[in-house]
Design brief:
The complex is a heterodimer of chains A (301) and B (260). With 301 residues, chain A is of the alpha/beta class. Chain A contains 10 helices and 13 strands. Classes of the chains: A alpha/beta (301), B mainly alpha (260).
């Protein structure tokens, strides 16, 4: 379990994380979502004891990272795939990590085999593709067989086969009762990978909950097409709905359920040609939530 | 069964890192080549011109001259020390290192231990080889020195210590500056530029200041009789060690206080 309490992290004048509270539970895949620059990586670095919080604290299994004994046996992390000395072989990189936490070298070969890098174990990491580096990073995270795993943007650079592999890996790790905390700036990725989602923007917690909670909470809309658009539009507005003209004869109606729209059309004597409830996709929910929380927004289009 | 990562296991980890990159191996090879190669060039040149330059016979030191290669090798060891640290910053692997060993002082101590033991071995072998080779080149023409003389033995032994301590200075700069290029410029300035700047000062100042410069300390340590206005060999070793201790202390403090 990972717990973050009132975490604030300030770099000179920039506030990267602002009074953040969150708990990442074991047994599920928790997606950590936010636009670039929203504070995801900072939060992960604080959890790993790499950056010191300005205020508040982060604990892993109830203890600050600094107090963990043989931390790699409790927490594994993939923070940056390319963060390996390019002149060192994959095996030596992992052996150096293993030695520091008294993990036997046999485990190094096990994880290399597991991530599919056994055949290039003695190759210099500088010659690795981004995808191979990601796999090496994952091998490093799994090295100590830890109960808590952090992955910062793990999907970057993986091919479709690799992406499927990593999703399955997260599922099985969570299935074994481990805490799996995965950051991404892509909602579409998290929608298919995570069970729980935490959304942050500009260092603030925006929302958290299960994937289905988030989509359910999002307001849907109804697309309606009938014989008399103007009469229908007037009636809908009178009933308090938000109405948007889609084209010559179709309207997108908000704040009113499909049943109510149908009833209204019947009362007004408008013949309906189409009545389609539309549920917001998780992507749209995310865009709506993080609008205004993006550091470098592209502005209204 | 999961014990706290003791210093021994962190040292083991750092040793794997040190020996598994080309830069360390190259650095060690260059240290040998510079110490021994330049030593051979200097001694051979002195032998050739010995009889035609009788004025050079006054105050001639067969030990210092045979160790002349250390003047060049000192840059190689400085780079070895600096790169051992800065390569972790340039690649970003420092994060993995500190995540594996959150007690950062242990990382500082482990890297220091690996560097000191490696450089001590390399430097001492290099200085003794170049000394013996130099005396062999001199023999018959130029006066020679022998290791059976305790002062000569001290000068050669301290030559190796000088190189090792300069490697430690390079490492401390690596922790403090985190960038290879910055480190190498500062290190080079300390060794090469500082004496030039001092040379421009009034001579009374020169005499006071120059003895504290790393290169002058090295001359005191490597010669049978130290140059004028310089520290004795023992005092020079002490001063240089003090520099190393203070800079490494600053390095450890910086590492524990800064974000990785």
């Amino acid at each position: 379990m990972i717990a973050i309490e009132h975490l604030t992290k300030r770099y000179r004048k920039t506030v990267a994380v602002d009074d953040l509270d969150l708990v990442v539970e074991p047994g599920v895949v928790t997606g950590f979502l936010g636009p670039n620059g929203s504070g995801k990586s900072t939060t992960m670095r604080v959890i790993m004891g790499l950056d010191r919080p300005t205020r508040g604290r982060a604990t892993v299994n109830g203890r600050p990272y600094h107090d963990l004994r043989d931390p790699l046996r409790e927490v594994g992390a993939l923070l940056e795939a390319k963060a390996v000395n390019p002149g060192r072989s994959a095996r030596n990189h992992l052996r150096a990590l293993a030695a520091s936490n008294k993990i036997p070298f046999s485990r190094v070969d096990e994880v290399l085999e597991f991530v599919g890098l056994a055949s290039v174990a003695t190759k210099r990491v500088g010659e690795f593709s981004l995808g191979m580096s990601q796999r090496l990073g994952i091998a490093g995270a799994l090295l100590g067989d830890p109960g808590v795993l952090l992955f910062d943007e793990p999907v970057n650079g993986l091919d479709p086969e690799g992406i499927r592999w990593i999703r399955d890996l997260f599922r099985s790790l969570a299935g074994e009762g481990r805490t799996v905390f995965v950051s991404s700036h892509l909602m579409s990725e998290m929608a298919v990978t995570a069970d729980q989602i935490i959304v942050i923007g500009k260092g603030h917690l925006i929302t958290q909950g299960s994937v289905s909670d988030l989509t359910a909470a999002a307001k849907g809309s109804v697309v309606v097409r009938g014989s008399d658009r103007e009469r229908l539009e007037r009636a809908l507005r009178a009933a308090g709905a938000t109405v948007e003209v889609v084209n010559d004869d179709a309207l997108r109606v908000g704040e009113l359920a499909a049943e109510a729209v149908g009833q209204l059309a019947f009362d007004e004597g408008v013949v309906l040609f189409e009545l389609t409830p539309e549920r917001a996709s998780l992507e749209e929910v995310y865009m709506a939530l993080t609008a205004g929380a993006t550091e470098y927004g592209s502005g209204p289009s | 069964m999961s014990a706290h990562p003791t210093l021994a296991s962190v040292i083991r980890s750092e040793w794997i890192k040190f020996r598994s990159v080309r830069s360390s191996i190259m650095g060690v090879a260059i240290t040998f080549v510079l110490t021994i190669g330049i030593g051979a060039l200097i001694t051979a040149s002195i032998r050739t011109h010995w009889t035609s330059h009788p004025e050079a016979h006054i105050g001639f030191d067969p030990v210092t001259t045979s160790l002349g290669g250390t003047l060049f090798a000192q840059f190689a060891v400085g780079v070895i020390g600096a790169l051992f640290v800065t390569s972790e910053y340039s690649s970003g692997s420092i994060r993995a290192t500190l995540a594996a060993t959150p007690r950062r002082v242990e990382v500082v101590l482990a890297k220091l231990a690996v560097l000191v033991v490696s450089l001590l071995l390399v430097s001492e072998v290099a200085v003794f080889v170049t000394f013996l080779m130099g005396q062999a080149i001199y023999s018959g023409v130029v006066p020679t020195a022998s290791l059976s003389n305790p002062t000569v033995l001290r000068a050669v032994l301290f030559g190796g210590l000088y190189l090792t301590l300069l490697g430690v200075l390079g490492m401390a700069l690596g922790w403090l500056l985190r960038q290879s290029a910055a480190c190498i410029s500062v290190f080079t300035s300390l060794i090469l530029v500082l004496p030039i700047v001092t040379f421009l000062l009034p001579s009374s100042w020169q005499n006071t200041i120059s003895r504290f410069e790393p290169s002058t300390l090295g001359q005191s340590m490597e010669s049978v009789s130290p140059p004028a206005h310089a520290f004795s060999a023992g005092a020079a070793l002490l001063v240089l060690s003090l520099y190393a201790v203070v800079l490494m202390g600053a390095a450890a403090t910086a590492l524990t206080r800064r974000d990785a």
